[in-house]
Design brief:
With 130 residues, this protein is an alpha/beta fold. The protein is built from five helices and five strands; from the N terminus they run E-H-E-H-E-H-E-H-E-H. The model has no long low-confidence stretch (mean pLDDT 91). Strands 3-2-1-4-5 form a five-stranded parallel beta sheet.
């Protein structure tokens, strides 16, 4: 997909609310026809993949001794994924090296919290008057 900022989404859930974040990822996937890659870091990721396999086209296994940042850059090169068309949803201490390459980087925790607040605000707007 040419010039699609979200053609590829690579997600590393970490400690974020998986249910909320998955809803957001589903919306991106549907709207932008994104390819979604799950970074496999824990048993929780394996269980989540089993439960939500329809969302993820591929998985990315971590390389021991290699930073998440370097693993993702290597994965993208190996799979011919354009940095400018790839959004990373993961926690990074310093996003500058990735954004400098063209990636869009979002914090999974911040995304989940933002979504929760939006739902709360929407709920307050549509509450029936007493």
């Amino acid at each position: 997909m040419k010039d699609n900022r979200y053609a590829n989404i690579i997600v590393c859930y970490g400690d974020a609310d998986r249910d909320i974040l998955t809803k957001q990822i589903k919306m991106y996937k549907e709207r932008y026809q994104s390819k979604v890659v799950l970074v496999m870091e824990s048993e929780a990721d394996t269980k989540w993949l089993d439960k939500h396999s329809e969302i993820f086209e591929e998985t990315m296994n971590r390389t021991e001794g290699v930073s998440l940042q370097d693993d993702i850059v290597s994965y993208c090169k190996a799979h011919h994924l354009s940095e400018k068309e790839t959004m990373l949803i993961a926690e990074f201490g310093d996003t500058e090296p990735l954004t400098g390459l063209g990636f869009e980087v979002k914090s999974p925790g911040a995304m989940a919290e933002s979504y929760k607040k939006a739902l709360e605000m929407l709920g307050n707007m549509i509450k029936p008057r007493v």
